[in-house]
Amino acid sequence: MSAYAAEQLKEKGNAHFKAGEYEEAVALYSQAIQKHSTNPLLYTNRANARLKLGLWEEVIDDCLHSIELLQDNMKAYYFLAQAQLELNHPNEALVSAKTAYDLCSKSFTQTSSAFAISAFVLKCKRAKWELRERDRLRRRNALLDELETKLEQDRNRELESIKDQHEQGVLGDVAAREEMDEVRQTYEDKVTELRNVFAIADPQNMTKREIPEYLVDDISFEIMHDPVVTKHGHSYERATIIEHIKRNPSDPLTREALFIHDLRPNIALKKACDAFWEQHPGCEFEW
């Protein structure tokens, strides 16, 4: 009986979610969880609604609880990765996003999510790279380090103030999320402007390095060394796509049939990869 009541509450929550009424959806999903606390899908539903409200810590709690109940939980790992990235934890987000992608790749019922999760893995990798580049540049210039540290401290104080107001009921979920987004965006804009000033002053040492996305393999999410192209026009690292085909003879993104004899060297992309490595000798580029 409790499972049936929980299902009815979930359906009502889904209706509010589709209407963009996320606070109402969260309330109904919470009631459903009270009725049937061992259903992992209820926690992912609430996590998704909380993502829309910017309640990152609560999203993480829901996802971890859902994963405890169901380990091979693609949605929970995907939502978890999004919240972790929003909290500026790109390393943890990358692990969660890769897990979601692996689970998605193994399932023939979740192929529609493959493109979105693949793109999000790359987003996490870019964030991880940005963090490493920030640290590299700050190590090169003590003044830049001091100024960015000051900006971070100011941002964190403002975020804590908004969080306190939200907990005290002064700000609602939506207002708190919007103010936090504005604070984060203002901080990012100031940091970008600051780094541009230092890059202009010392271009040889302070210019940020970029990794072109077209050089990145969609399976391992690493820079390719020996790219091949499929008959569907997608390029992959030779070793990773061959291993994938041995397990599952299909294109990992489109799910169309794919065999080793369908692969052809991507000569132009190989030249671009070689040129990139020549320009950055000795760099491992772990994202």
From TrEMBL:
PROSITE patterns: TPR (PS50005), U_BOX (PS51698)
Keywords assigned by UniProt, alphabetized: Coiled coil, Isomerase, Repeat, Rotamase, TPR repeat, Transferase, Ubl conjugation pathway
One annotated Gene Ontology cellular component of this protein: cytoplasm
Ranges occupied by TPR repeats: 6-39
GO BP: any one term: positive regulation of proteolysis
Record-linked SMART domains: TPR, Ubox
Keyword hit for Repeat: yes
Gene Ontology MF term list: peptidyl-prolyl cis-trans isomerase activity; protein-folding chaperone binding; ubiquitin protein ligase activity
Annotated U-box domain residues: 210-283
Keyword Cytoplasm in record: no
Catalytic activity: S-ubiquitinyl-[E2 ubiquitin-conjugating enzyme]-L-cysteine + [acceptor protein]-L-lysine = [E2 ubiquitin-conjugating enzyme]-L-cysteine + N(6)-ubiquitinyl-[acceptor protein]-L-lysine
InterPro entries: CHIP_TPR_N, TPR-like_helical_dom_sf, TPR_rpt, Ubox_domain, Znf_RING/FYVE/PHD
Coiled coil start-end: 134-197
SUPFAM superfamilies: RING/U-box (SSF57850), TPR-like (SSF48452)
Pfam families: CHIP_TPR_N (PF18391), TPR_11 (PF13414), U-box (PF04564)
Protein's recorded name: U-box-domain-containing protein
